[in-house]
Specification:
Helices cover about 35% and strands about 20% of the residues. With about 290 residues, the chain is of the alpha/beta class.
Length: about 290
Amino acid sequence: MGRIEIGVIAFLCWGMIFASPADLAAQPVPAGFESVDIPVTGERAATIKAYLRKPASNQAVPAVVALHGCGGLFRRDGRLAARDADWAERLAELGYAVMFPDSFNPRGFREICTSTGDVRPIRPRHRVADAIAATSWLARQPFIDGNRIALIGWSNGGTTVLMAADKPQLAKSAVGLRAAIAFYPGCRLPAERADYSVGLPLTILIGSDDDWTPPEPCRELAKRPGIKLIEYPGAAHGFDAPNSPRRTRRGVGLSARGDGEVQIGTDPAARASAIETVLGILTDAFAKAPPR
């Protein structure tokens, strides 16, 4: 294959994940949500969209900032990703406000799963600023109890949670974060840091058969104070997604074996257990926090 053909293929593949910010930022607001513009400073400064779902309440309520994975917050048909929609429904039923910052579309990217590590345009360290900006915005709202906010993230968003829970980063948020929950994050970089330590309770949930973000670095990380690891035997990446049959995904930019192939899909037992665990963590964390 000649250089021209390779260049064309690379251009087409890049075009699958990149478009103008104006095109991608104009996502329809999901039913039951409202759109909020949040300015983000730092290396990837931008004004991002965040999607907020509020429960019916006349009092200030706890809130969860939920961070999407490398596939982005929206499907190609414009609907909210099934996993995110499912969790939003569950959290709202408990009386929590839920905010999903969109880290990709406002910056001109649909997804980054297919981009390799050396060219990924948005990384968890950039997304930490999104999480801090979202929590700070929520804490200023009269309908939110600023002493009771939690972080949840999935995959790339889970790695972002690990970085946001680091003590120096956490100090920048200046809000009442009570818990951090990371679904199948990439734990390698935090685990390699001798100085990594968390400033709030962190729970990591991962499948033992995850070949996208392998569990071994998370096992090492969980030896440190304040970090709890829950590992689900036989489960793969994305085990908590609703009605997603287990399958092989190809063309992944970062995979454990380096071949671009990973196993993903629902594990019913792990999903049920994780839902119960997460709701329990939030209930306990918010009950211990003094209302504002």
